[in-house]
Amino acid sequence: MRIFLIGFMGSGKTTLGKQLAKKLGYQFVDQDTLIEERLKMSVGDIFATYGESCFRTEERDVLLSFETSINLVISTGGGTPCFFDNIGIMNNLGCSIYLKADPKTLANRLKNSQNTRPLIRGKSKQELFEYISEKLFEREPFYNQATISIQAINLTVADIILVLNESLKLPSKT
Ligand code: S3P
Q: Which CATH class is domain 2-162?
């Protein structure tokens, strides 16, 4: 099984993804890290040097490469499901889980990590909140195509496993 965690920046995909992978005995993969390794550059430098469209193409290529691996938990980038037919690819390759969070929570979580995220770098608190509100509205039609949607506030791995078991009857190592 391949499990894709999707959702806005700051929704907890990486933190929860690592914990989920450990609990299931799956390999954890961070999609942004894979892209950085492929291009030997940070995401910020990829955006600055080659532009967002190059990053989106890499993102899609990396997504397709998961076809050859099994038992993965993948933390995707916040924009991944919203380009090409990426959400369809994810749902064909496995199960996607949307970690839902509101703009206020996301803005609070993101205010100290803006430098590593080119789309929100340099924004004031108010600008950050407005950007998140608009982008989230634009992206939700894609996020809402996930196999499973879960509220990300106070979410634990145990909660995710419960929902997964209900929907997919997954074997767990616990
Ligand atoms: C992006 C989210 C980032 C990263 C890139 C673009 C987005 O990933 O892929 O900066 O478009 O929302 P995280 O969601 O892991 O921060």
A: alpha beta
